[in-house]
Design a protein that fits this description.
It is a single chain. The radius of gyration is 27 Å and the shape is globular. The protein has helices at 2-15, 27-30, 33-51, 60-64, 77-86, 228-233, 245-250, 260-275, 336-343; strands at residues 71-75, 145-154, 162-175, 179-190, 196-207, 219-223, 283-290, 299-307, 310-317, 322-331. β3 and β4 (179-190) form a beta hairpin. The chain is of the alpha+beta class. It has three domains: 2-51, no CATH class; 60-212, Thiol Ester Dehydrase, Chain A (Roll); 222-343, Hotdog Thioesterase (Thiol Ester Dehydrase, Chain A, Roll). α1 (2-15) packs across α3 (33-51). It is built from nine helices and ten strands. The two termini are 50 Å apart. One of its GO terms (cellular component) is peroxisome.
């Protein structure tokens, strides 16, 4: 009778069901106090043995190695018009001259026009919405998930009907102590021509799922496009080593490399985001030592840790597992947010 009672209590506790046991199975009715205490202890030990240690919230290696399947889908003018209506088009005036073309053909207009933000729906065509439920190494409470930021880059006007393909990847993973920030990048192509329409980058906050890295060295990962050097050169550094394949080969590289100062900018931005709550005015000085070249399109992982008012950092290329940059950022003061993280044992 005692064993049956303990097992029943274990099952009820495990399933979080608050139903009283039948009177003839109740431990308080059939088992003396001392024996019941020992039985309850054995029950707790059994539960601990079965449940084992809690799983880590995030396994960075598993997350970053995940490959999303390509997803094909089609949409038409009905979808485009429904979206426009859903965000208020023609809501105040059903014949608004400036918005009627979003929901209706008129004056020889061959098709209705899609709002640029219609493209924000494309990532949700992936399995399970943004697809993060299927990512191995992510253990989080879905009720605490927040969609914190969203960036859309439009390469071609969004057609009112199309057959398209989504290509999705993990674009960022950051340990914020009490939370994990996950960046998902989805590029959408026209299925037949392969023409790129747009790119969505969703920033997801997984509250309660942080703390997966060494508390003194917050983890930050981000990947950047293969044309990053071409973008950076527009800021004034026109050295052909970063844009001309022939010049790069003469210099001993297989292809143009990223500007060292571009890598430095990424690293310092990661420090400001992680330690300064995004406030660049908290920085007094910075220092960086260039250790190795970076090819545009490679993944940069920046590790950081606080030493007094200095944030020491090291940036690695994930694909080659090599350090490419190291240095420090001297802060004017330690932001109050860092004191909060220390108080709660997050640093």
């Amino acid at each position: 009778m005692e064993k049956l009672s303990v097992a029943a209590n274990y099952l009820l506790d495990h399933l979080s069901v608050s139903l009283p046991l039948p009177r003839h199975l109740s431990t308080s009715h059939t088992v003396p106090r001392r024996r019941r205490r020992h039985a309850d202890e054995r029950g707790r030990q059994t539960m601990a043995a079965r449940s084992g240690p809690p799983a880590a919230a995030v396994d960075p290696e598993a997350v970053l190695s995940h490959s999303f399947p390509e997803v094909s889908f089609a949409y038409d003018e009905r979808d485009v018009a429904l979206y426009a209506l859903g965000v208020g088009a023609c809501g105040a005036d059903a014949v608004d001259e400036k918005e009627l073309h979003l929901v209706y053909h008129r004056d020889g207009q061959p098709h209705i026009k899609a709002l640029p933000t219609f493209a924000s729906l494309f990532p949700f065509k992936n399995s399970n919405g943004l697809g993060i439920v299927d990512v191995p190494g992510l253990n989080f409470d879905a009720s605490l998930l927040l969609h914190g930021q969203h960036y859309i880059e439009i390469y071609k006007p969004i057609p009112s009907r199309a057959n398209v393909v989504n290509k999705t990847k993990i674009a960022g993973l950051h340990d914020k102590g009490k939370a994990t920030i996950l960046e998902i990048e989805t590029t959408t192509h026209v299925k037949d021509s392969g023409e790129v329409l747009c790119m969505n980058r969703s920033t997801i906050y997984l509250r309660g799922a942080g703390g997966f890295s060494d508390p003194s060295r917050p983890y930050s990962y981000a990947s950047y496009p293969t044309n990053q050097a071409l973008l950076y050169r527009l800021s004034g550094d026109y050295n052909p080593l970063h844009s001309d394949p022939m010049v790069a080969q003469v210099a001993g590289f297989t292809r143009p490399i990223l500007h060292g100062l571009s890598s430095l900018g990424f690293a310092i931005r990661a420090v400001i985001k992680s330690f300064c709550n995004g406030d660049p005015t908290a920085v007094k000085s910075t220092f960086g030592r260039f250790l190795l070249h970076v090819y545009p399109g490679e993944t940069l992982v920046t590790e950081m840790w606080l030493q007094g008012q200095r944030v020491l950092y090291q940036t690695k290329v994930k694909e080659r597992n090599r350090a490419v940059l190291s240095g420090y950022v001297l802060l004017k003061h330690i932001p109050s947010s860092l004191f909060d993280r220390k108080r709660w044992g997050c640093m």
